[in-house]
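Input (structure):
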């Protein structure tokens, strides 16, 4: 009985921790919401990845800026090298209109068809972009007021 209660308590704590880690930071509903997207690319394919990203994904993001979903886009790469386990090649910072916009699913299908009439080429190039990608992660960012 004691063991079962202990396991139940541990499970409850882990559930709370997992929920806190996956929940978006608490900001006012009408405030901008920042997400950083990190990309780690196979060695020697960084330029190819960036070229494909700019050709096939950046236009979608820019269209979302035009629509008002995204307020700004910034693409960065580190100036110096880092250890392999900490390495990332590109960081794309998106500032969304608000947290709801950032965390609600958005169907890009119509935009993809509009921007890329040759869907076969688009799909092949996107497949290649992900073939040379080693890792990708998203990080919500909260500004700390000073």
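Output (sequence):
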């Amino acid at each position: 009985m004691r063991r079962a209660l202990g396991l139940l308590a541990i499970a409850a704590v882990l559930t709370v921790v997992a929920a806190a880690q996956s929940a978006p930071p608490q900001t006012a509903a009408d405030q901008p919401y920042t997400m950083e997207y990190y990309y780690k690319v196979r060695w020697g394919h960084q330029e190819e990845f960036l070229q494909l990203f700019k050709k096939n994904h950046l236009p979608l993001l820019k269209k979302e800026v035009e629509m008002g979903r995204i307020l700004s886009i910034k693409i960065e790469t580190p100036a110096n090298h880092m250890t392999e386990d900490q390495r990332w090649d590109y960081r794309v910072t998106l500032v969304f209109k608000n947290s709801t916009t950032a965390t609600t699913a958005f169907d890009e299908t119509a935009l993809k068809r509009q921007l890329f009439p040759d869907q076969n080429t688009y799909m092949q190039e996107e497949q290649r972009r992900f073939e040379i990608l080693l890792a990708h992660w998203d990080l919500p960012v909260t500004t700390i007021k000073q």
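Notes: Confidence is low (pLDDT under 50) at residues 4-20. Residues 46-67 form the longest helix (22 residues).
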